Structure formats: structure tokens, C-alpha cells
Amino acid sequence: xxASEIVTAVCNEFSVKRADLMKSCRLSEVVEARQVAFYLIRxxxxxxxxxxxxxxxxxxxxxxxGCRATVRRLRTDVMFNMRVNSLxxxxxxxxxxPVNKKSRNQPGKKKR
Length: 112
Known about the structure:
Largest sheet: none
Strand content: under 5%
CATH topology: Chromosomal Replication Initiator Protein Dnaa, Chain: A
CATH superfamily: DnaA protein, C-terminal DNA-binding domain
Radius of gyration: 18 Å
CATH class: Mainly Alpha
Order of helices and strands: HHHHHH
Number of helices: 6
CATH architecture: Orthogonal Bundle
Oligomer: single chain
Shape: globular
Number of strands: 0
């Protein structure tokens, strides 16, 4: 999974255009989506603030502020918490690696 995939998922969930999220738009809907993207990239991919900032063309301090603001809101806003955690669990399911379906030693076959 890449940061760009998380940004796409956030844009779809919050009905925000990717271009608006990437530029310095200060509309509350866009700011909210951008901060959620920061938070999800940080929590799903475990990237540093600097790497997230370079991916989204933001300063690392902006990313840190956005992550902290999202965490504060997750604690107080139940509907927001449900929305973000639903999105996060969907992303985490995509990140999980597939289980090896076939083992090398199949039953019934002898090793040589």
C-alpha cells in the first residue's frame, strides 16, 4: 500500500477532490480530509512526519499538527471516530499480506 492509495480512499470517503487536498485550500471539508489522510498514513504505513510531508507537499510540523488534531477529535466525536476507524480498518485489510496457500510439502507426496 502506498500513501497515494490512502489519499484516494480519504478523498472518496470525504467527497473531496484530490487536487483540493494537495493544494493549500483552507475550506473546512478539505482541511478535515487532509488531516485524516495525515493520520491514516501515519497509523497504517507508520511513516514519519517528514516522509508524509514530502508525499503531500507539506511541512512536517503541519503533518504533526494534523495528526494530533485528528486524534483529539477521534476522542470527542463518536460519528467521526466511526467514520475514520471504518476507513482505517478497510485500509488495514488491504495491507495484510496474503497467506501462503500452497506449502512446499504437499500431503501425499514423498520427498526425494
